Every structure is written in C-alpha cells, then in structure tokens.
C-alpha cells in the first residue's frame, strides 16, 4: 500500500489536470508579471550599497560615557562572510531542492522574492539606523586602548 502523501500528491495533479509550472513554460511570464517587485529589490540593493559606503555620524565620546564602552574585546563569533550563506544562499538552495521535487516555478519565485525582500528591507533599516545614530561599539575602549590603560 502506498503512503498517503504520495497518493494525495498524485490525486492533486490529476485534479488540476495541468502539467507542472516550470521555468520553461511559465518562467518568463512570471518574471514579467513581477517586474516591479524585482525593480524595487534592485532599488533596495542600491540603497543598501549607498548606506554601506556612507560614513556614519561621528559621536563625541566623553569620559562619562566610557563605562558603557568598556566591554572586553572578543573574537567574532560568527564570521561576516558566513552571514549571507546562512541568511540567503542556504534558504535559496532549499527552495531549489523543493522546486526540483515539486516542479512549481511559482513556489520558487515567490519564496525567493520574499526572502530577498525581507533580507534587504532588514539591511536597509538596520544600516540607516546605524549611520544615523553612530554609537560606538561596546568594546570601543579596548579597541582604542588594548592594554586597558587610558592615556
């Protein structure tokens, strides 16, 4: 006896009566229908690059502020290069695996579009606030004075 999900999947395909929506059959039309979404993503990417290039607001650091900035320096726990892999490439790889199994280009397109929107909107908001506020890192003191002695 076949397991229930396989039977249901086969019934669903028969009920729909249409072949799978692949990139060949529906890809170009799907991209054209969502061209405004992709243009907004491109605009968000350009804003993010601009925010990365922009120098942040330089805040004066007085002696009374130094207590909040004397956290010990630690090595980076998550390397910067791994963040895009975990946040973007790994989910897209999973989306591609699901596409290979199911063959529905709509799922692939919408999941990729949603992921990229969420990542870019988060990056733009975060970097805009960082640039506007310009507060030093919590380990600022030990970056300036590695021996821990103020001059």
Automatic annotation (TrEMBL):
The chain crosses the membrane at residues 38-58, 78-100, 112-129. It comes from Quercus suber (Cork oak). InterPro entries: PAP-like, PAP2/HPO_sf. GO terms for cellular component: membrane. This is Lipid phosphate phosphatase 3. Keywords: Membrane, Transmembrane, Transmembrane helix. The keyword rRNA-binding does not apply. PANTHER family: LIPID PHOSPHATE PHOSPHATASE, LIPID PHOSPHATE PHOSPHATASE 1. GO terms for molecular function: phosphatidate phosphatase activity. One of its GO terms (biological process) is phospholipid metabolic process.
